[in-house]
Amino acid sequence: MDEAAFWDTALSGPAVTEIWNSGTPNNLNSLTNASGPVAWYRMGEQATFSGGNWTLTDQGSGGNDATSVNLEESDRKTDTP
Q1: Which residues is 53 bridged to in the sheet?
Q2: Is residue 48 within 8 Å of 55, Cβ to Cβ?
Q3: 8 secondary structure, DSSP code
Q4: Which uninterrupted H or E stretch holds 45?
Q5: pLDDT tens digit string along 7-61?
């Protein structure tokens, strides 16, 4: 999994279409058909590894960073489709 995002409301059809943009996801913080996600984790580009754990920076509006368990630094893959 490269990215995961969470909303606190159901998304409409137009919002889902805008997010996926014909297969190329848009910036989730600048949507016109939905509010930004309450949490958005970009595993490849925004993750950092320190002290034996990954930290996934929340790119959404919640500011809730996540921490991994039982993952090695070599588990990170960047620019996956």
Answers
A1: 50
A2: yes
A3: S
A4: none
A5: 988 999 999 998 888 777 778 888 888 888 888 877 666 677 777 777 777 777 6
Given a contact cutoff of 8 angstroms between Cβ atoms, the answer to whether 46 and 57 are in contact is yes
Number of residues in the chain: 81
Query: Could you identify the residue written with the tokens 């996926």?
Result: 20
Strand positions, DSSP E, 28-80: 39-42, 47-50, 53-56, 66-67
Q: Residue 15 is encoded by which pair of tokens?
A: 């919002």
Cβ atoms of 76 and 49 closer than 8 Å: yes
List all residues 6 or more positions away from 60 whose beta carbon is below 8 Å from its beta carbon: 5, 6, 28, 29, 36, 37, 38, 39, 40
Structure tokens belonging to residue 46: 């925004």
